[in-house]
Amino acid sequence: MKKIFVICPVRNIDVETRIAIEMYVKALEGEGYQVHWPVRDTEQKDQTGGYKICRTNFQVFI
């Protein structure tokens, strides 16, 4: 299975952009790709200044 990691805004994203990205992610998944979308797939609460989020994202496809 092919894997895709979507790099996109997470915070302060406008509704139209989020919807467009969500539709893109769903289309890719419909084509059989495994998609990691950080907004949906990575816990965004982090008291370490973002280190935990970045570390989690780094380890996604290892």
Helix content: 40-55%
| Beta-strand fraction estimate | 5-15%
Number of β-strand runs: 2
Query: What are the low-pLDDT stretches, counting only 5+ consecutive residues below 50?
Result: none
Mean pLDDT: 88
- The first-to-last residue Cα distance is 14 Å
Q: What is the rounded Rg?
A: 12 Å
Major sheet attributes: 2 strands, parallel
Please identify the structural class as seen in this structure: mainly alpha
Number of helices: 3
Query: Given the C-alpha coordinates, what overall shape results?
Result: flat
How many distinct folded domains?
Answer: 1
Question: What strand line-up does the widest sheet have?
Answer: 1-2
Task: List the keywords.
mainly alpha; 62 residues
Description of the molecule:
- With 62 residues, the protein is mainly alpha-helical.
- It has one domain (3-58).
- Helices cover 45% and strands 10% of the residues.
- The protein contains three helices and two strands; from the N terminus they run βαβαα.
- Strands 1-2 form a two-stranded parallel sheet.
- β1 (3-5), α1 (15-30) and β2 (34-36) form a beta-alpha-beta unit.
- It is flat, with a radius of gyration of 12 Å.
- It starts with a strand and ends with a helix.
